[in-house]
Amino acid sequence: HKHLLGTKGLSATELTSILDRASYWEEYPVKVSNHLQGRFVANMFFENSTRTRFSFEVAEKRLGAEVLNFTAAVSSVQKGESIYDTVRTLESMGIDAGVIRMKPNGLLAELAQKIKVPLINAGDGNNEHPTQALLDLYTMRKHFGHISGLHVAIIGDIRHSRVARSNLWALRTLGARVSFCAPAEMQAAELAEYAPYTTIDEALKADVVMMLRVQLERHEGSLFRSAEEYRAAYGLTVERAAKLAPHAIIMHPAPVNRNVEIDDELVECDKSKIFTQMSHGVPIRMAVIERALS
Ligand code: CP
């Protein structure tokens, strides 16, 4: 079996084979197949989600798996049961794979040592969100025909972003150039050796402009006291979007704070791939679940 804990350490061959298998599923769409008939997959979300959770569920159902949905809010987690004990409990009932999202950093790697069934990371702390990066790379490859040589500028709350980290590792492995753009309090110093920090004007020259959700709740008392100030300094406004290269695309993992990191009018503009990214979540997660259970 194969865990998927992150994109860090995945080879170009492994990344490409997941993207290729997702292409297959997009090219030959099925409502429901019998690929994983009789296999049980548990979705274990210890943190909120809309896109990741439901696209995993759609992917599992299209593959014909039996789907178990665990929700922390109505579980014995409320009585103090730990994440480890919860996952062990589901494992002891005979699940074949687990999809897991959680807040703590580092816990997933520990769980993966102790749990025998394959675990797929659906986002852990600010560490990794590998299936998001895979669907982002899939979107870029489909649009440009390649990933190698692209310049991807990731703008916003890098420090708290697992999406930025998973994209950074995967994009570098496949030969793209990544740059970051963020105010000081949203920068991650430990990533500076892999991606330079640039001004917003430099970032607007990229082939892919990837906006991140500003987690404003985490920045009380920081440089930006309001969403308006953030938008003025780092937001993708209509005025800034007019400076993008003709071939450039706009991405955002969502959920979106409209009129904070990206203007309302841009969310569904011609250059925006935001809802396309979401639709690619299903074939990517089909490929990832198959890989885990193959
Ligand atoms: N992009 C993403 O992970 O969205 P959710 O938190 O809604 O799953």
Automatic annotation (TrEMBL):
Any matching Pfam family: OTCace_N
Record-linked InterPro entries: Asp/Orn_carbamoyltranf_P-bd, Asp/Orn_carbamoylTrfase, Asp/Orn_carbamoylTrfase_sf, Asp_carbamoyltransf, Asp_carbamoyltransf_Asp/Orn-bd
Domain Aspartate/ornithine carbamoyltransferase carbamoyl-P binding: 2-141
Pathways involved: Pyrimidine metabolism; UMP biosynthesis via de novo pathway; (S)-dihydroorotate from bicarbonate: step 2/3
Assembly mode: Heterododecamer (2C3:3R2) of six catalytic PyrB chains organized as two trimers (C3), and six regulatory PyrI chains organized as three dimers (R2).
Family the entry assigns: Belongs to the aspartate/ornithine carbamoyltransferase superfamily. ATCase family.
This protein's name: Aspartate carbamoyltransferase
